[in-house]
């Protein structure tokens, strides 16, 4: 498989008035052509900030370190103007809330065609025609009518499709989707996930799916990466992590997720709260919530290391990881 | 589980909203709920599911008289709440409480946790003195897992999960019989969501509560509910026990909803054939004629456009509203074997 993106030792730091907060630390991963990688974690795990950094979209007080290689180009070394040559064209991102990502004062077709005029040198008329074709491809009924509508006239699912259409117009190699279905009903979510599947299969687009919903991950992701407190704690093939999790946090997430086909008497949630990045616990950041923590976890931080079969985990515990049947 | 007493009975409930379309234009009527009939038994958890705009939150609010229904009755132990004078209804509110989706937005930022939780007591139990109130607040805080030293803190100091615990404590303090939970865990992280679901289950057992659990997340509803009510465009399409709904759905809409629910199991997820619903929910201002689901139903026949299917009582007291429920087969992939 061709590698389309390689992230090396990336970090994201935010400056506050009198201190610094590290939102992402020592992130390493690669993405292959046509692959779907899920990035899983709870609020504050750093999952969104990591990819905003890759897109050059960090807030003003944020800065990224390390390297993000797309071919020979290090995206982090480019200024905003240079980045515009790739952003939207080779690598695109869509967000959870389509309403706040679309310009409310412009018609759908104006926003879509702009992308083609800017990145692919289309003339206005061709750009509009191509935009309408793309709206149809992403499953929007009556695409001509919708193209002439303003964002507020569309439903949530329709707006998210417009965002996806916009992201796809330049046929990016990489699409980053940050919680793309969280705000949608299950029926529309299922349609979206189908659309993502056909994207990766038919166009060879590589998809990064940032989500907290393990149900969504199970349906579409080839590989997954679990984040906690700004670090990747487990990484591997989706099936391996679901059926044989090696990190207690991954196990905890699985036990916290209600399963529609299996009605457990009660869920086995992870105790406590996700940590604040400003005040991460010493040693392993997960140790205060971990049922398997021992002395070493309190003082020493476990590095992310290979555990065979292309899997990696950041945990010292080597015993069996189970506390009952996964619900 | 044997549920005997009928706590609440909803009869022919209807709720419409008037939508202004312009300064001089005639307002449009949106029918949010129509022909709603069901009962809730003491001690059960009734889940209400449906897509956005199906009327599930409106139904919860009509039951609590936070919205006044246009027609129909809400019978609480036989007494019609819609006819109750305001003062009596205020007293009744001790028995009927609500928990909201956005925990932080539903807490007054200028009140301390103690004041927020004690607030219902001030109006509903004015005879209690300060010491008694405080004792009750502390006891309730303990049962929802909040530490006593948090009593003087303000809502912004809390995370979403803790804020939801405060909301639950505020609902519990009047010792209610019924709590309407309107998307109580939708805004929370997965691990916190599971903690709150477990807490609700414990509180239900401890205090013998009856719960109405409104959510768009079918996995969550399945986890907590004894019976499940499925709404589509303001009407009941199916009502049955949780197991019946999930193992043998009768209505094509219920079935489509179920197959769309993501399962956290990669192998099962791959095996599944999603009975994908085409399109989106039609506008409730101008709903389709006959069966309102027919525009998205793959089993629809011409006669579905002519006549509205009645809500029929079928085996075990299940309810279903579909002209064709007897004829259509449930495909194997719709049934999830756990």
Q: What would you call the structural class of chain B?
A: alpha/beta
Question: What fraction of the residues of chain B are assigned to beta strands by DSSP?
Answer: 15-25%
CATH class of the largest domain in chain A: Alpha Beta
* Count of DSSP strands of chain A: 12
Going by CATH, what is the homologous superfamily of chain B? P-loop containing nucleotide triphosphate hydrolases
Please provide the ordered H/E string of secondary-structure elements of chain B.
Answer: EEEHEEHEHHHEHEHEEHHHEE
Characterize the overall form of chain A. globular
Q: What CATH architecture of chain B do you see?
A: 3-Layer(aba) Sandwich
How many strands in all of chain B?
12
Helix content of chain B: 25-40%
Query: DSSP strand (E) fraction of chain A?
Result: 15-25%
Question: What report would you give on this structure?
Answer:
The complex is a heterodimer of chains A (327) and B (338). Chain A has 327 residues and is an alpha/beta fold. Chain A folds into two domains: 3-90 and 172-313, 3-Layer(aba) Sandwich (Rossmann fold), CATH 3.40.50; 103-167, no CATH class. In chain A, 32% of the residues lie in helices and 24% in strands. Chain A contains twelve helices and twelve strands. Chain A has helices at residues 47-54, 80-83, 98-101, 108-120, 124-137, 143-147, 156-168, 186-203, 214-220, 238-243, 248-256, 295-299; strands spanning 3-15, 20-32, 36-40, 62-70, 73-74, 91-94, 174-178, 206-211, 223-228, 231-237, 305-308, 311-313. In chain A, the strands form two sheets. Chain A has an eight-stranded mixed β-sheet, sandwiched between helices. A four-stranded antiparallel β-sheet of chain A has the order 2-1-4-5, covered by helices on one side. In chain A, a hairpin with a 4-residue loop joins strand 1 (3-15) and strand 2 (20-32). Chain A is globular and about 65 Å long. The model of chain A has no long low-confidence stretch (mean pLDDT 90). In chain B, strands 6-7-8-3-9-10-12-11 form an eight-stranded mixed β-sheet, with helices on both faces. A four-stranded antiparallel β-sheet of chain B has the order 2-1-4-5, with helices on one face. With 338 residues, chain B is of the alpha/beta class. Chain B starts with 5 loop residues before the first strand and ends in an 18-residue tail after the last strand. In chain B, helix 3 (113-124) crosses helix 4. Chain B has one domain (6-95, 176-334): 3-Layer(aba) Sandwich (Rossmann fold). At the A-B interface, helix 7, helix 8, helix 9, helix 10 and helix 11 of A face helix 5, helix 6, helix 7, helix 8 and helix 9 of B.
């Amino acid at each position: 498989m061709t590698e389309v993106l390689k992230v090396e030792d990336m970090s994201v730091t935010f400056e506050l008035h009198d201190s610094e907060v590290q939102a992402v630390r020592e992130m390493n991963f690669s993405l292959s052509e046509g692959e779907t990688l899920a990035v899983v974690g709870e609020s504050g795990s750093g999952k969104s900030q990591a990819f905003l950094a890759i897109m050059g979209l960090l807030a003003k007080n944020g800065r990224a370190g390390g390297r993000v290689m797309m071919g020979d180009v290090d995206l982090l070394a480019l200024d905003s103007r240079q980045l515009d040559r790739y952003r939207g064209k080779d690598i695109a991102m869509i967000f959870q809330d389509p309403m706040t990502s679309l310009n409310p004062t412009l018609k759908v077709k104006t926003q879509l065609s702009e992308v083609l005029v800017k990145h692919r040198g289309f003339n206005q008329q061709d750009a509009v025609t191509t935009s309408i074709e793309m709206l149809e491809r992403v499953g929007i009924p009556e695409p001509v009518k919708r193209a002439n509508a303003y964002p507020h006239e569309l439903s949530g699912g329709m707006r998210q499709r417009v965002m996806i259409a916009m992201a796809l117009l330049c046929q990016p190699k990489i699409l980053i989707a940050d919680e793309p279905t969280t705000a949608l009903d299950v029926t529309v979510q299922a349609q979206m996930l189908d659309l993502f599947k056909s994207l990766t299969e038919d166009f060879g687009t590589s998809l990064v799916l940032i989500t907290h919903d393990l149900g969504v991950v199970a349906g579409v992701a080839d590989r997954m990466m679990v984040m906690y407190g700004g670090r990747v704690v487990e990484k591997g093939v989706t099936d391996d992590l679901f059926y044989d999790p090696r990190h207690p946090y991954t196990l905890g997430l699985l036990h916290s997720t209600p399963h529609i086909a299996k009605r457990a008497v009660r869920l086995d949630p992870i105790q406590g709260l996700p940590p604040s990045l400003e005040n991460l616990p010493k040693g392993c950041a997960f140790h205060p919530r971990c049922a398997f923590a021992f002395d070493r976890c309190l003082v020493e931080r476990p590095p992310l290391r290979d555990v065979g079969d292309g899997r990696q985990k950041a945990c010292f515990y080597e015993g069996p990881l189970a506390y009952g049947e996964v619900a | 589980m044997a549920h005997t007493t009928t706590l609440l009975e909803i009869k022919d409930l209807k709720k419409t909203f008037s939508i202004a379309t312009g300064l001089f234009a005639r307002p449009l009527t949106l029918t949010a709920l129509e022909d709603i009939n069901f009962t809730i038994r003491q001690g059960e958890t009734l889940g209400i599911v449906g897509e956005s705009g199906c009327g599930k939150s409106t139904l919860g609010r009509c039951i609590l008289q936070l919205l006044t229904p246009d027609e129909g009755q809400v019978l609480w132990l036989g007494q019609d709440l819609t006819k109750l004078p305001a003062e009596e209804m205020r007293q009744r509110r001790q028995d009927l409480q609500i928990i909201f989706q956005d925990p932080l937005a539903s807490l007054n930022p200028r009140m301390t946790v103690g004041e927020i939780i004690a607030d219902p007591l001030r109006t509903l139990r004015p005879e209690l003195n300060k010491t008694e109130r405080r004792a009750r607040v502390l006891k309730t805080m303990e049962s929802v897992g909040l530490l006593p030293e948090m009593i003087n803190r303000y809502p912004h100091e809390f995370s979403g999960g803790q804020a939801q615990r405060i909301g639950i404590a505020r609902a519990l303090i009047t010792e209610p019989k019924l709590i309407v939970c309107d998307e109580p865990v939708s805004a929370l992280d997965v691990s916190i969501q599971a903690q709150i679901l477990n807490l609700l289950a414990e509180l239900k057992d401890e205090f013998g509560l009856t719960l109405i659990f409104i959510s768009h997340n079918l996995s969550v509803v399945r986890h907590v509910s004894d019976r499940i009510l499925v709404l589509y465009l303001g009407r009941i399409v199916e009502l049955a026990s949780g197991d019946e709904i999930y193992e043998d759905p009768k209505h094509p809409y219920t079935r489509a909803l179920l197959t769309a629910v993501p399962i956290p199991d990669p192998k099962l997820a791959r095996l599944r054939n999603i009975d994908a619903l085409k399109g989106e929910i039609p506008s409730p201002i101008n709903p389709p004629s006959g069966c309102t689901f027919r525009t998205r139903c793959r089993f629809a026949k011409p006669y579905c456009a002519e006549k509205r299917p009645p809500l029929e009582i079928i085996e075990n007291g299940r309810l279903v509203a579909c002209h064709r429920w007897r004829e259509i087969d449930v495909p194997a992939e719709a049934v999830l074997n756990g």
